[in-house]
């Protein structure tokens, strides 16, 4: 295949309290480096060592030096505007005769988008989780963010989504002629079954940000409701966030400190250890793109009970590769968990989940998928 000359990937800043965007950005940059001669990655607050680990001289990280670790909302918004004003200058310096611009829509990068439109540069808009649904109570700020990101995607020359379910989550009809499904990959050399499912103890796991939209407090209450039915069961929660202290207090009040472990933030390279101990990944959520933790756990043979939002609907086939969670109230979660834990087909579903992800989300499969899309650009 003929290589394209350059892609410039523009992404929002990495929040100081949330490293989850680091992994997905890194994977997209890595995939693009095998298709393009040059990859310029423009962002802010991104850890440079992550790009150095890719050992590629084709990749140039352009980190805009601004502080996004402040709890001051007004300061964050001001820095975000300053960041957007600086991006066109970097784009102008980085352009070659055959450059494509990819907007990785983790934020409403409207100023650089308008600049690229005015310059008639070829634009790829990449949509994933819809921030409109990020909070339990939809607010104007998240609504406007989502509206701007959707506007950018729909007015790009090419629209990409992680999966068709993500498009539906944005209330966009998936059209093969106008949209492209570009999914990332799981590192199957690290995320694999190391401990047979049948040998695992009765441990339920969660891997998420501790925020209201991830229903972590409801999950703790649901786990408590099952104490009499499954006294030997444990719950491990990997992640950090603003609800961490509230989770600690709730666990203490419920008298569950000996059965529920708050693990804090777990680095990605250590997650396979935990996934291989868990019988089930519990994943209630208001919104998602295609969550890394879900497909990584499935690759380890750990099936999931998940809310069916965003790209999850393309991965969880109910009672085949996992289980649908219809009701994310404490009672609803407890009832679903009880039903799953009493079933006798968990081993078969574990195997099916692992095989599904290994086939569709391996590195080779994702690279082939990206190359197929990039063929359209030549």
UniProtKB/TrEMBL annotation:
<feature type="domain" description="Glycosyl transferase family 1">
    <location>
        <begin position="198"/>
        <end position="351"/>
    </location>
</feature>
<keyword id="KW-0808">Transferase</keyword>
<dbReference type="GO" id="GO:0016757">
    <property type="term" value="F:glycosyltransferase activity"/>
</dbReference>
<protein>
    <submittedName>
        <fullName>Glycosyltransferase involved in cell wall bisynthesis</fullName>
    </submittedName>
</protein>
<dbReference type="Pfam" id="PF00534">
    <property type="entry name" value="Glycos_transf_1"/>
</dbReference>
<dbReference type="InterPro" id="IPR001296">
    <property type="entry name" value="Glyco_trans_1"/>
</dbReference>
């Amino acid at each position: 295949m003929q290589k394209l000359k350059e892609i410039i990937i523009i992404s929002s800043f990495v929040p100081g309290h949330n490293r989850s965007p680091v992994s997905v950005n890194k994977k997209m940059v890595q995939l693009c480096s095998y298709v393009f001669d040059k990859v310029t990655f423009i962002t802010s607050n991104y850890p440079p060592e992550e790009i150095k680990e890719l050992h590629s001289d084709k990749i140039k990280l352009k980190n805009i030096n601004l502080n996004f670790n402040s709890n001051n909302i007004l300061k964050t918004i001001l820095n975000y505007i300053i960041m957007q004003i600086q991006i066109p200058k970097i784009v102008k310096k980085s352009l070659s005769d055959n450059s494509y611009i990819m907007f990785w829509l983790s934020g409403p990068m409207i100023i650089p988008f308008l600049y690229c439109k005015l310059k008639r540069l070829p634009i790829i808009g990449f949509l994933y989780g819809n921030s409109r649904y990020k909070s339990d109570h939809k607010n104007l700020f998240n609504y406007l963010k989502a509206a701007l990101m959707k506007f950018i995607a729909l007015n790009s020359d090419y629209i990409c989504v992680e999966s068709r379910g993500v498009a539906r989550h944005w209330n966009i009809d998936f059209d093969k002629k106008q949209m492209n499904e570009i999914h990332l990959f799981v590192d199957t050399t690290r995320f694999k079954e190391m401990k047979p499912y049948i040998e695992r103890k009765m441990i339920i796991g969660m891997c998420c940000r501790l925020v209201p939209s991830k229903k972590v407090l409801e999950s703790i209450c649901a786990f408590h409701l099952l104490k009499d039915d499954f006294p030997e069961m444990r719950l491990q929660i990997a992640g950090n966030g603003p609800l961490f202290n509230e989770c600690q207090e709730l666990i203490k009040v419920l008298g569950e400190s000996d059965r529920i472990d708050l693990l804090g933030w777990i680095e990605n390279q250590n997650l396979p250890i935990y996934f291989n101990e868990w019988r089930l990944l519990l994943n209630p959520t208001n919104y998602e793109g295609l969550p890394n933790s879900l497909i990584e756990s499935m690759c380890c043979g750990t099936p999931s009970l998940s809310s069916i939002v965003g790209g999850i609907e393309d991965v969880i086939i109910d009672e085949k590769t996992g289980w649908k969670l219809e009701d994310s109230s404490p009672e609803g979660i407890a009832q679903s968990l009880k039903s799953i834990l009493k079933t006798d087909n968990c081993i078969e579903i574990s195997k099916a989940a692992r095989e599904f992800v290994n086939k569709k989300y391996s590195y080779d499969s994702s690279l082939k998928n990206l190359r197929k899309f990039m063929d359209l650009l030549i």
